[in-house]
Structures are given as C-alpha cells and as structure tokens.
Amino acid sequence: MKMFRNYINGQWVTTAKQFEDRNPVDNTLVGMVYEAGKAEVDAAVKAARAALGGPWGKMTQQQRCNMLVAVADEIHRRFDDFLAAEIADTGKPKGLASRVDIPRGGENFRDLADLSMRFPTESYTFDTPDGGKAINYGVRTPRGVIAVISPWNLPLLLMTWKVGPALACGNTVVVKPSEVTPATATLLAEVMETVGLPPGVFNLVHGFGPDSAGAYLTEHPDVDGITFTGETRTGEAIMKAAAKGVRPVSFELGGKNAGLVFADCDFDKAVAGITRSAFENTGQVCLGTERVYVERPIFDRFVAALKKSAESLRPGNPWDEGVNFGPLVSQEHYSKVLSYYEKAKADGATVVTGGERWQLPGALAEGAWVKPTIWTGLPETSAVIREEIFGPCVHLAPFDTEEEAIALANNTPYGLACTAWTTDVSRAHRLGSAIEVGIFWINSWFLRDLRTSFGGAKQSGIGREGGSHTYEFYTETRNICVKL
Ligand code: NDP
C-alpha cells in the first residue's frame, strides 16, 4: 500500500492524521495520505517565502527555465509511473490518460517556460512640460508565494497548468491537490527533488475538504496570490479568505456549457464532437456540454445518432485495450451524479439511454460506474439543466432560430465554454461574438493552443491563463519612469 507524504522545504513530511485514497474502478485502497495540518501549512508557506530570496531568486530567467525543461523531461522519463498513478486515482482509461493528462503535464512546464523567455514589456517616451523627455518602461517581478489549489478531474494537467507558469515567473508555490487524487502531485514533488529544485520552491500539502490544508493555505496571510480550479461555491469561500489582506485570485470555476448543433453542420462530425464533449473523461471535464440544442429539422436524427454513439462506449478495466469509458472519480461523486439521474426522472425527462448505475461484473461491481445518459423533454427550469452535474450525461432540446439558440446558450449564470457545429462561416463568427463564454469552439471541442487565453466569464471564473495572459497573474508589473 502506498503512503502519500507532504513535501515541505525539500523534506518529506508525515503527520499523525491520515485519510484513504481509493480506486474508483473497484473501490480498492490505493494508499493512505498524510493530512497536513496548520503547522505543516505554516512551515510550507514559510519555506516558500524564504526560497524567494534564496538561490531560486538569484537565478537568471534562463537558468530557471532550464530547470523547468528538466522537470518536463523527468515527467516524460517517468511517464509510466505518472500514468499508473493517475489511472489508480481516477480510473480513467489508459488511452485518454496517455494521450491527454500525462503529456500535457510535461508540456505545461516546457511550453510556459519557453513563453516566459519571450514575454515583452511596454516602453513609452514622452515630452515633459519643461521641454525635455522622459522614458517609461515596465518590468515584471514575481508575485511571491503562490497557493495552488487544484481539482480531481485532470489532476496532473490542471495542477501543472498553474505550477509551470508560476515557477517560470520566478514565484514559489505551495500546492494543495484534491483529496481524491493525491498521487501525481506526490510524484511531481519527487521530480522536483530529482531535478534539484532548491528547497522551498515547490511545496506540497495534502488536505481533506474544508477546515483543512486548503482552507489554512488560502487564509494564510503570507500567501501573495491564490490560483484555484474547482467548484464555484469553493471559489466563493476562497475569495472571502483572500479578501483579508486584499490578495489577488485567479479562478477557473464550474460551468453548464451549451453545445449548439445547426442543421447545416457536418452531421457525422457533430455527433462525434458532442459524443466527446458529453462523455469524455466520464463527463468530468469542466468544458464539457451537459445541455445541447439541436436545430429542429435534424433533432430526431441527431438524438438517434448520439444514442448509438453513447451506447458504443466501452467501460472496463482502464488498462484494457478498447476500453474508452471510466468510472466516476469517487463514491461521493457517484452519489451526486446518481441523484441528478433521479431528479431528471422526477422532472419528467425521457431517458433516451442510460439514466442509471452501470452494474459491471466481478471486481468492478464495487466501482463508481454510471451509464452514459441522454435525456430529452425537460423544461429549461429543471435543476438538471441549470446545475453542473459533472457526469456523463446530456440533455438534448430542439431550437428553431439562431437567435433562440443564442438565448438558450446564454441562459445560465455560468460562462465557461461553448461548442457550435455549423458550416456557415458568417454564422460561426456571429455566434463567437454573441455567446457569453471565455472559450468558444466552432466545429471542434477541447482543442487547445497553449498560447491562447483560457478562463471563464460570469460565474465560471476570474482572470485568464494561457500565453501572455498567464503572466498578468503570476507577475507584478512595475512602471519605471526616467526623466532624461
Ligand atoms: P472542489 O471545489 O470541491 O475542490 C477543488 C479544490 O479545492 C480541492 O483541492 C479541494 O480540496 C479544495 N478545497 C475545498 N474546500 C476548500 C476551502 N474551503 N478552501 C480552500 N480549498 C478548498 O472541486 P472538485 O475537486 O470537486 O472539482 C470539480 C469542479 O472543478 C467542478 O465544479 C468543475 O467545473 C471545476 N473545474 C473547473 C475547471 C475550469 O477550468 N473552469 C477545470 C476543471 C474543473 P479537497 O479535495 O480536499 O476538498
């Protein structure tokens, strides 16, 4: 059995209190996690503060970036360890984790280190009242100690998406992964140790929900900025904590993303695209679509085609070839998703397919399996349409006009992402301007160029990460004015 330790100031730290890490495939125990308390969080923040003025702070930008490239190389070298750890914690199929989670975990260090070498600052010359001149130029300094709080759905990818740029900008970090996915964060600490990152630059604390390490960390007065991905409700709690000391936050929060399918779409590509956006990673993708609006002339045909596609998904042991559908991440999340499956029935939904737990044979019978689910016929007021479920489920409804489709897509307090399927180029651009989201895909979904902005509008987030946007949060800009 594995024991997951905290990593503070370059030391591996155990504590008296432990909690379980379970595999959602069959509910077996993966390992025990040493829960960090207030004392450990204090020590981690103190170490991170001290490390800012140590060798890390004195390195050139190129030296720091070389270390981050070494981190990417080491993740690549230990690819199989990371893969096994991520699969044990989440149950996601090998094909998905080896194509998305682990490679992106490495690339987040390589790409964002590379970008940080090329990020410009502004400069202006101006005429002064005395007839002379002055120049202004901006310099960027690290923000300081950054608290990184990450979720369980793409554990390594979403954590490194923050740790990579934070370190590339010269900050130090204290990382708190989700309680249900502690493994790859712990492996990342091993990687940091192997490549020789100075002690205190990367610290890891494990915690268990509210009133634990996450809350202690975000309330800590010596943290200079908080970057968080998770539920909107947790974001609200963190924002309250950050108000004390007026600390900046960068938030990537929940969503209730719409998909729009127009009658002029490439039908087969739209079916394949919505199959991915609704069911990939068992629907546990913040960018996923849980409500899809289809233009009426193709509605029935689309429902039938998506049903066929959903029913072709194969659950099973994540290591088996051909398995492309995993369990939900935990028993707790399983109960939450099933409660929405019941709510849909109570609200009068037509269950096109699924709508219940998936009874798998043998050891898998104990796992957190639910069927990919399609509903029709719900009113827009149903909680199933309004609230984020974060499961493999989608409601399909017809629309008649482009204006109606836009209104339906925007009828939510969230604003993370939208995917639209049409071959009308002018319409595509009109939609791009009209839909209130941070990320809008036309004829695609989850296609990411790391140089572009990523984040949510409305209640789906604060700030943008990716490319040059990343540096708005991870650095402070200082203007220097020189009278010539
Ligand atoms: P949670 O908000 O439950 O947890 C996220 C992290 O916050 C965990 O590490 C959690 O710790 C920690 N946490 C919980 N309470 C507190 C607190 N009071 N103070 C500080 N930290 C705290 O999200 P989930 O892990 O359930 O992830 C799923 C959610 O993430 C979905 O809503 C999804 O939409 C969102 N998400 C958003 C993305 C985006 O880019 N917009 C991307 C991916 C996911 P612990 O696990 O110990 O409770």
DSSP helix count?
Answer: 16
* Largest beta sheet: strand ordering: 15-16-17-14-13-19-20
What ligand species are in this complex? NADPH dihydro-nicotinamide-adenine-dinucleotide phosphate
Structural shape: globular
What's the Cα radius of gyration? 23 Å
Mean pLDDT: 97
- Write down the CATH class of the largest domain: Alpha Beta
Q: How many structural domains does the protein architecture include? A: 2
Q: Count all strands and give the number.
A: 23
Alpha-beta content class? alpha/beta
Percent strand = 15-25%
Relevant CATH superfamily of the largest domain: Aldehyde Dehydrogenase, Chain A, domain 1
Distance between the termini: 67 Å
Assigned CATH architecture of the largest domain = 3-Layer(aba) Sandwich
Name the helicity range. Answer: 25-40%
The biggest beta sheet reads: 7 strands, mixed
CATH fold name of the largest domain: Aldehyde Dehydrogenase, Chain A, domain 1
- Unreliable stretches covering 5 or more consecutive residues: none
InterPro entries: Ald_DH/histidinol_DH, Ald_DH_C, Ald_DH_CS_CYS, Ald_DH_CS_GLU, Ald_DH_N, Aldehyde_DH_dom, OHmuconic_semiald_DH
Enzyme class: oxidoreductase
Keywords: NAD, Oxidoreductase
GO molecular function, one term: betaine-aldehyde dehydrogenase (NAD+) activity
Topology:
Elements: E1 2-4, E2 6-8, E3 11-13, E4 18-22, E5 29-34, H1 38-52, H2 55-58, H3 61-77, H4 79-90, H5 94-116, E6 123-127, E7 133-142, E8 145-149, H6 155-168, E9 172-176, H7 183-195, E10 202-204, H8 213-219, E11 225-229, H9 232-243, E12 249-252, E13 257-261, H10 267-279, E14 289-295, H11 299-311, H12 331-346, E15 350-353, E16 373-376, H13 383-386, E17 393-399, H14 402-410, E18 414-415, E19 417-421, H15 425-434, E20 439-442, E21 457-458, E22 461-462, H16 470-474, E23 475-483
Parallel strand pairs: 1-5, 8-9, 8-11, 9-10, 11-12, 13-14, 13-19, 14-17, 16-17, 19-20
Antiparallel strand pairs: 2-3, 4-5, 6-7, 7-23, 12-22, 15-16, 18-21
Bound molecules: NADPH dihydro-nicotinamide-adenine-dinucleotide phosphate.
Residues 149-153, 158, 176-179, 207-210, 214-215, 218, 229-231, 234, 237-238, 252-255, 286, 388, 390, 416, 456, 460-461 line the site of NADPH dihydro-nicotinamide-adenine-dinucleotide phosphate.
Domain Aldehyde dehydrogenase: 12-480
Keywords: NAD, Oxidoreductase
Active site: 252
